[in-house]
Amino acid sequence: MTAKPTCPAPEALGPTITIGEILVEIMAEEPGDGFLQPLALIGPYPSGAPAIFIDQVAKMGGAAGIIAAVGRDDFGEVNVRRLARDGVDTSAISRSASLPTGTAFVRYRPDGGRDFVFNIAHSAAGDLAMTDPVRALIERAGHLHVMGTALSIPRAWPILTAALDTVKRRGGSVSFDPNLRKELMSAEITERFATVLAATDLFLPSEAEIFLAGEAADVDTAAAALIARGVAEVVVKRGARGATRYASGSTLECPAFGVTEIDPTGAGDCFGASYVTARRLGHGPEAALRLAAAAGARNVTLRGPMEGTSTLAELHELMSSGEEA
Ligand code: ATP
Ligand code: MG
C-alpha cells in the first residue's frame, strides 16, 4: 500500500517557494481621495504579495525562497536586504539590467477603500527568466504557493507551470491564494486560474474570491464543490470576521483577534503564510488557524505591508494577550 501524501508536504521535503512581484509601497500620510495634488508620502516599504508571504514563512521558521526580479536600484536593494535579513533564500531574485523595481503608491480613503498608482507590468517585476538559480530552487522545493497576482505576469507563467510540475513530481504540495478581483479575469487569466486550481491542495480565497473557482449559491456550497473536486483544504478569509476551514467531513471556524486596524494590506498574505508553515511544521488545522489569525491580526496593526510580518514568539505573545473578537 502506498502512503497518501500528507497535505501540505512536511518541511523536510524542501522549502516553501513562491513566484511573483516584489515592489516598494509608498503611501500617502493622510487619508483622502487619490493623488491629484502634492501630498506628504512615506516609504519605500518592502511590498508585493508574494514577497510579504515568503517573508512571513521565513520569520516563522519555515525554509523559504522566492523567484522574482527587481531593478538595480535602492528600491530593489531595500527588498532584497529585508528578505535576506528575515531568512528568505534570495538566490532566485534576479536584477533587471534595464527596468526599475516595481512600485505601488497607495492612499487610503476615509471609507476604508484604497486608491493605487501601480507600476508592475512595465517594471523589473515582469522581467523574470528561467535562470540556473531559479531552476535549482524549484528542484529542491517541497511546497509551491501560487499568488494569483503572478498569473497576470506573462513571463511568470512558464516558470510557474514548471514549478507546479516539479513540485508535484517530488511529492510536494501546492497552495493558491487568488488575490484577484473579478474585473481582472481575462480569458487567459481564467484559463491559468483553472490550471493552478486543478493542482491545488490548499485553497486560500477571500469570501468574494471563492466564486472565481465556479458559481455557487453561497460560500459553504462553493467550498464543498472544491473539496469534491479534490482540493484537500479550503480556508476562506473574512477579514475582521475571521476565517473558516473546510475539509472533507469537517468545518472549523476561526474567530479573528480583536485589534486596532492601522493598515490592512498584507493580512491575507501573512495569514496564508502562517497557515501553510504551521501545517508544514506539523501543527494540526486548529493550531495552524490560530497562528494564522494571529499573523493576520498583527499585520494590520502596523503601517507598511511587510512591517507586520511576525516571528513565532510574536505570534505567541499576541495569542496570549489578544482577545478573540
Ligand atoms: P488582502 O488580500 O487584502 O491581504 P485577504 O482578503 O486575503 O486580504 P483578510 O481576510 O483581509 O485577507 O485577512 C486574513 C485574516 O487576517 C483574517 O481571516 C483574519 O484572521 C485576519 N485579519 C484581517 N483583518 C483583521 C482585523 N482588522 N482584525 C483582526 N484580524 C484581522
Ligand atoms: Mg488576499
Fold and architecture overview:
The chain has 325 residues and is of the alpha/beta class. It has a single domain (11-21, 47-98, 124-324), classed as UDP-N-acetylmuramoyl-L-alanine:D-glutamate ligase. The chain is 33% helix and 22% strand. It is built from 9 helices and 15 strands. The strands form 3 sheets. The protein has a 9-stranded mixed sheet with strand order 5-4-1-8-9-10-11-12-13, with helices on both faces. A 4-stranded mixed sheet has the order 3-2-6-7. Helix 8 crosses helix 9. The longest helix has 16 residues, at 285-300. The radius of gyration is 18 Å and the shape is globular. The model has no long low-confidence stretch (mean pLDDT 95). Residues 177, 179, 206, 268 line the site of magnesium ion (MG).
Number of domains: 1
Could you tell me the CATH topology label.
UDP-N-acetylmuramoyl-L-alanine:D-glutamate ligase
Helix/strand structural class: alpha/beta
Could you give me the name of the CATH homologous superfamily? Ribokinase
Total DSSP E strands = 15
Write the H/E string, N to C: EEEHEHEEEHEHEHEHEEEEHHHE
What is the average per-residue confidence, as pLDDT, rounded to a whole number?
A: 95
